UniProtKB/TrEMBL annotation:
One Gene Ontology biological process: biotin biosynthetic process
Lineage: Eukaryota, Fungi, Dikarya, Ascomycota, Pezizomycotina
Protein name: Pyridoxal phosphate-dependent transferase, major domain protein
Family: Belongs to the class-II pyridoxal-phosphate-dependent aminotransferase family. BioF subfamily.
Sorted UniProt keywords: Pyridoxal phosphate, Transferase
Organism: Metarhizium album (strain ARSEF 1941)
Length: 452
């Protein structure tokens, strides 16, 4: 028996119809069996690793473990266990932090941290491409929020003529503004939010420059850098310790968020911080206080994967992953040089990838994704509003378990699609582009960067 339709249903239907007309309607889909994964965030292929599966089952069956399916309570009621606190200590030690606090997801870690850490009068300065969870956390906070141009620290880093400001200019304007005296005296805090690796472009934040800029401008110690290491955990730094550890900035970054649902192949997250900040989050982070804690099976999975990383067993997987990344990028560059497509139709970043993520920019990204899927390669189109308007792309993710043969097959499918598109005139539309005739245009060089 279903509920009768209401005016609210009609409103929802209208909004959904409009989004479908714009070619932006989201749907839940299944991954077809037998397709090659070039889409998921499991960069190290650990979720299906046979050694990890065996170790995980062995840990679960250990007589010393008090096995239960769920925690049956929040951490502050009945959900806290020695396993939770031992795991926090293990992870904090691995990443060179003094303390850590587990959350059920990276989304909950960010919303919990950003909603309660800034105090009244404080300010959050964030990279314009920061994850949606940070935006939601800021909205729940009592702080002002100001974006800065993506990965741009100084004025010379901004490559366009827009009014987007780099970090140094944003901080300078704050110091010279109405609250400048409070900032200069250290009575007001500024939280600077960035990601280690950005999930849609795959680029790495200029973190050392960011930290130095914050320390220079906010010399009273009231500048606090927060790094979301979701896509750098497991993939960047010695044994996957992340970007902060790779650069030796453990004592200069105020907080880090490491998530376990991507390269780690599990679920959940941890905020790495000082013991005082950990205690504060236990008291004020609502996404921790009012949710059931992770159960023993997931805690054991996370512990197992960290043991695998710490032992060095994943080093070979990481080396193979970045070999495949280099091979894929070289093949894609060769395709671009051979066909010289109009950049709106197809382009890639010419600089070597810094992560397993390679965006394939195209106004016909949906068509490209469908073509690859039909040939057995799972890639997905990412369009606005998930990415800024005009930057639609197919987000290509490489994995340690992919093979050179699979990479070459995917690139062959991409080239086949491109040849078909270049061979015919395309009608305008949300998934089509009217191309000028070859004789009428002078093609610009390949774009150097996707940074906005």
């Amino acid at each position: 028996m279903s509920l009768p339709k209401t005016r609210l249903d009609a409103t929802f239907e209208s909004l959904l119809a409009r989004r479908e007309h714009q070619g932006r309607l989201r749907r839940l889909t299944y991954r077809e069996p037998g397709v090659v994964d070039f889409s998921s965030n499991g960069y190290l292929s650990l979720s299906t690793n046979s050694d990890i599966k065996a170790a995980y089952l062995s840990h679960l069956q250990s007589p010393s473990n008090e096995f239960s399916l769920g925690s049956c309570g929040s951490r502050l009621l009945d959900g806290n266990t020695p396993s939770s606190e031992n795991l926090e200590s293990l992870i904090a030690g691995f990443h060179g932090a003094s303390a850590g606090l587990l959350f059920n997801s990276g989304f909950e870690a960010n919303t919990g941290l950003f909603s309660c850490a800034p105090q009244p009068g404080d300010c959050v300065v964030y990279d314009e491409l920061i994850h949606a969870s940070v935006h939601d956390g800021i909205k729940l906070s009592r702080a002002r929020a100001i974006p800065f141009a993506h990965s741009c620290v100084r004025p010379g880093d901004v490559r366009d003529s827009s009014k987007r400001r780099p970090l140094d200019v944003v901080l300078s304007d704050l110091l010279n503004g109405s609250d400048g005296h409070e900032l200069r005296s250290g009575r007001v805090n500024v939280f600077v939010a960035v990601e280690g690796v950005y999930s849609m472009d795959g680029d790495v934040a200029p973190l050392r420059d960011i930290v130095e800029c914050v320390e220079k401008r906010l010399s009273q110690g009231n500048g606090h850098v927060i790094v979301d290491e979701a896509h750098s955990t497991g993939c960047v730094g010695d044994r996957g310790r992340g970007l902060v550890c790779q650069l030796g900035l453990e004592e200069r970054v105020w907080a880090r968020v490491h998530t376990f649902g991507k390269a780690m192949g599990c679920a959940g997250a941890i905020v790495l911080c000082t013991p005082t900040t950990r205690s504060y989050l236990i008291n004020y982070a609502r996404s921790l206080i009012y949710t059931t804690a992770m159960g023993h099976p997931m805690l054991t999975a996370i512990q197992t994967v960290y043991g695998y990383l710490k032992s060095g067993q994943a080093d070979g997987l990481l080396a193979n992953l970045f070999y495949l990344v280099q091979e894929t990028h070289a093949l894609l560059l060769s395709i671009c040089q051979k066909h010289n497509p109009w950049p709106q139709l197809f382009r890639i970043n010419t600089r070597p990838p810094q992560s397993p993520i390679i965006p394939l920019f195209s106004v016909q990204s949906r068509s490209l994704a469908r073509h690859c899927q039909q040939r057995g390669y799972m890639v997905r189109s990412i369009v606005a509003p998930t990415v800024p308007k005009g930057t639609d792309r197919v987000r290509l993710c490489l994995h340690a378990a992919n093979t050179v043969s699979e990479v070459r097959g995917l690139c062959k499918a991409i080239e086949e699609w491109l040849e078909q598109r270049l061979a015919r005139d395309c009608s305008p539309g949300p998934d089509n582009l009217q191309l000028p005739s070859v004789g009428d245009i002078k093609r610009p060089p390949l774009a150097e960067s996707s940074k906005l």
